Design the sequence.
């Protein structure tokens, strides 16, 4: 009877260990996915900033060559 109880306890401890490992892995996966989402958000923000700067450069680029010859003269 004692051997069966010890076996049950050992199996329960093994199950608890595996469940804690699995929960730790899922926690790590969720942290990694969160970091990936943060990185993708930062990338989208930088691409948006780049597009905005390109728009401003496109808006002000025709005016710059007009100003430059006046400055040369």
Sequence:
């Amino acid at each position: 009877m004692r051997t069966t109880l010890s076996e049950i306890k050992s199996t329960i401890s093994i199950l608890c260990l595996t469940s804690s490992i699995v929960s730790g892995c899922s926690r790590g996966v969720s942290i990694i996915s969160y970091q990936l989402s943060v990185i993708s958000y930062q990338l989208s923000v930088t691409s948006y900033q780049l597009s905005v700067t390109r728009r401003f450069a496109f808006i002000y680029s025709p005016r710059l060559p007009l100003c430059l010859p006046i400055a040369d003269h």
